[in-house]
Specification:
Helices cover 2% and strands 42% of the residues. By secondary structure, it is mainly beta. The strands form 7 sheets. It has a 4-stranded antiparallel beta sheet. The chain has a 4-stranded antiparallel beta sheet with strand order 2-3-4-5, with no helix packed on it. β18 and β19 form a beta hairpin. The longest helix is centred in the first third of the chain and has 6 residues. The chain starts with 27 loop residues before the first helix and ends in a 35-residue tail after the last strand.
C-alpha cells in the first residue's frame, strides 16, 4: 500500500537552533570528571522514562520534559526536579518530546497513536493546543522539528510494504490540512530516527530498522531530488546524531551496539564517507577493572568544546561517558550510584551545567559537578516489559544513491 501525496516542501530559512551548547565555565573534561548525583526523583508509578527534553537555553524557562511508558508527558523543574505538570492525551506509546526552539512555552510529543501534539507548558494538564495527523494507518515511532520551528517530520512504522516520512507546516495545522508531503521510497522498515540539522532547517537525517541512514535537502521538490546520501549501518538504527564542525558529520548507533561515523563533507567528492565503523563498539569501549559495557544510550555534539560525547551503560544502571574520536572511543567518566536498571535517555542542560538521565528504574536523576545528593529515594529495579517495542537485528545490504 502506498499513500499518495505530492511533496510540497518549502525552503525554510531562519535562525538556527542549538541542541547542544557548552556552559562558559571550566573545561568540559573537568566538569564531567566531577559529575555526581545532585538530585533524584522516582515517580509513584513504576513507569519507564523513554525520552527527555530541556527547555532552550536563554529562554527564561527551567523545565525538563519526560515521556513515560504510561503514555504521559511530565514536566519537572530543572533545578529541583519537582513535578510541575503532566499531559495526558496520547492513546499509544509516546516516542519522544521536543521543546520549541523559539517559543519556550511550547512542547511537542509524538506517539504510536498516529499523532503529534503541541502542548502549552504554561498550562499543565490542559488539552493539546495542536494535533497533527496524516493517514489513519500511520503509527509514529520518531519525530523532530526543524531548527526554525517551521516543519515537523515524523517517521512511521512499516505499513504493509512501505514506511513513510510525513511532513507538516508546524505553524498552521490542527489536522490533515497541514500535511506538506510524504516521502515513501527511501526506507523499507520502521523509521526509528528523524533528526533535523541543528543549523540548516532544510537538512534532515532519518534512520531505520532497514539499516539505512538517509540525508535529505527539503528545499528540493521530489523525494528523489531531495535524497543527498544514503549510508548503510548494516543493522537496525537506534540513534542518529549530527556532529562535527558546522554539524557536517553523522553519528549512528545500532540496536546491536554498532557505532558508525560519517563525514558528509565528502558527499560531493570521491572520498569515502565513513570515518569510523565498529560492528560492536562495546568491545572497543575499555572500562576499568572487569566492567563491561552492555549498551549505548546515545550521543551528542558539544559545540563549543568541539567534542562528540557518547554515553553507554550497564543493566545495573552504571553510566560511562566517552569521547568519540576518529580512532574510536575514549573513556572520560564513569557514573555510579544513580540508576539501578537500564538507562534509556539523557540530556545535557547547558544553562544549568547539569546532566539529566532517565530509564527503566523510573528515576529522573540530575548530575552536577561536585554535587552532594540532597535527597535520596529508594531505588527499585523494574521487571515489567518495556512499553516501547523496537525491532532489532542485522539487516542485509541495500542499494543507495551514494554509499561508500
Amino acid at each position: 500500500m502506498s499513500v499518495q501525496y505530492v511533496p510540497l516542501l518549502i525552503n525554510t530559512v531562519g535562525n538556527s537552533g542549538r541542541l547542544w551548547m557548552s556552559v562558559a565555565m571550566e573545561n568540559l573534561e573537568d566538569k564531567f570528571a566531577a559529575l555526581s548525583v545532585a538530585r533524584r526523583l522516582q515517580p509513584r508509578e513504576p513507569t519507564y522514562l523513554l525520552d527527555l527534553a530541556v527547555q532552550t537555553p536563554g529562554s527564561g524557562g527551567g523545565l525538563v520534559a519526560a515521556c513515560c511508558s504510561n503514555r504521559s508527558v511530565v514536566l519537572h523543574d530543572s533545578h529541583t526536579l519537582s513535578l510541575q505538570g503532566e499531559f495526558k492525551g496520547h492513546s499509544g506509546a509516546v516516542c519522544g518530546v521536543r521543546f520549541s526552539h523559539s517559543s519556550s512555552g511550547l512542547l511537542f510529543s509524538g506517539s504510536a497513536d498516529g499523532t503529534l501534539c503541541t502542548w502549552d507548558v504554561r498550562c499543565p494538564g490542559s488539552q493539546a493546543v495542536q494535533v497533527f495527523q496524516s493517514s489513519p494507518s500511520h503509527s509514529f515511532c520518531s519525530f523532530d522539528i526543524s531548527c526554525n520551528d517551521v516543519v515537523l517530520c515524523a517517521g512511521t512504522e512499516q505499513v504493509e510494504e512501505d514506511s513513510f516520512l510525513v511532513f507538516w507546516d508546524a505553524r498552521m495545522a490542527k489536522e490533515r490540512d497541514g500535511v506538506l508531503g510524504v516521502y515513501s521510497e527511501s526506507h523499507s522498515d520502521d523509521i526509528t530516527q528523524v533528526r533535523f540539522h541543528p543549523q540548516d532547517p532544510d537538512r534532515l537525517a532519518s534512520g531505520s530498522t532497514d539499516g539505512l541512514v538517509n540525508v535529505f535537502d527539503l528545499g528540493h521538490g521530489s523525494e528523489e531530488d531531495a535524497l543527498l546520501a544514503t549510508c548503510n549501518s548494516g543493522s537496525s538504527v537506534s540513534a542518529v546524531c549530527w556532529a562535527g564542525k558546522e554539524y557536517g558529520r553523522l553519528l549512528c548507533l545500532s540496536h546491536d551496539e554498532g557505532l558508525h561515523l560519517w563525514d558528509l563533507a565528502h558527499m560531493e567528492t570521491e572520498e569515502p564517507l565513513t570515518v569510523l565503523s565498529i560492528p560492536d563498539a562495546r568491545c572497543s569501549a575499555a572500562l576499568s577493572g572487569d566492567s563491561a559495557l552492555d549498551y549505548f544510550v546515545g550521543g551528542a555534539w558539544v559545540e563549543q568544546e568541539e567534542r562528540l560525547l557518547v554515553i553507554g551503560g550497564t543493566i545495573r544502571g552504571e553510566l560511562h561517558l566517552f569521547d568519540c574520536i576518529d580512532q574510536g572511543l575514549e573513556l572520560r567518566k564513569s557514573l555510579q550510584g544513580g540508576h539501578s536498571a537500564t538507562v534509556r535517555c539523557f540530556q545535557w542542560d547547558p544553562a544549568g551545567g547539569a546532566l539529566f538521565t532517565g530509564g527503566e528504574d523510573a528515576q529522573l536523576v540530575q548530575w552536577k559537578p561536585g554535587a552532594e545528593e540532597l535527597a535520596s529515594g529508594k531505588r527499585h529495579t523494574l521487571k515489567s516489559a518495556s512499553a516501547l517495542q523496537l525491532k532489532a537485528g542485522r539487516h542485509g545490504k541495500h542499494t543507495s544513491k551514494k554509499e561508500k
